[in-house]
Amino acid sequence: MRFDARELVNAWDEVFPMTEAQRRLVFSDRRNSLFLGGIGSGKTWALINCLLYSAIKSPEGVTVCGFGRSGIDVANVLKPLFHAQRERFKDVVGIDPIWSESKTYGRYTTQWGAQILFRPYDSAGLDAIRGLTIGA
Fold first, then answer.
1. SS3 call for 99
2. Could you tell me which residues come within 8 angstroms of residue 106 by beta carbon, excluding any fewer than 6 positions away?
3. Are 82 and 48 spatial neighbours (Cβ–Cβ below 8 Å)?
4. Dihedral of CA 42/92/33/23: which sign?
5. CA geometry: angle at 84 spanning 73 and 103, to 5°?
6. Tens digit of pLDDT for each residue in 1-23?
7. Strand, helix or coil at 4?
8. Which of 22, 39, 94, 129 could make an S-S bridge to 46, C-beta 3.0–4.6 Å?
């Protein structure tokens, strides 16, 4: 199934089937959202899905962030899952949502100009984003 990029936001649930709890997180209009769930409930999957969705619908120049508990969590959990969802996106939609990436800095720029930034929320990770405007 292929989607025109303009129709993608409306067809997101067809690209990435979700549970109701995941859907509420991904499609929330709130600036900050919370998804609590047990082991295996899809919290991380929903977070990555939410980041990708938010970056695609955000205007050029907006930065959305994915925070992990530590650098190891970001490198071993968040980024691999992000790359898996990026591949799913490419397979279903037919385009790579990422135009450029800096793996060193954990920064990805979408085809539409928004950026996705991955950081640990320890003191070093938060210091690295101090002064950065995040979100629309």
1. strand
2. 74, 79, 117, 118, 119
3. yes
4. negative
5. 60
6. 455 555 676 778 778 888 888 98
7. coil
8. 22
Residue 25's Cβ-count burial label (10 Å; 0-12, 13-18, 19+) is buried
- Strands 107-110 and 98-102, by their bridges, are antiparallel
**Alpha-carbon separation of residue 72 from 56, 86, 110 (angstroms):** 26, 20, 24
Please tell me the pTM assigned to this model. 0.82
List the structure tokens of 96: 């790579």
Count helices and strands in the chain by DSSP H and E runs: 6, 4
DSSP string, 29-75: -SSS------TTSSHHHHHHHHHHHHHHHSPTT-EEEEEESSHHHII
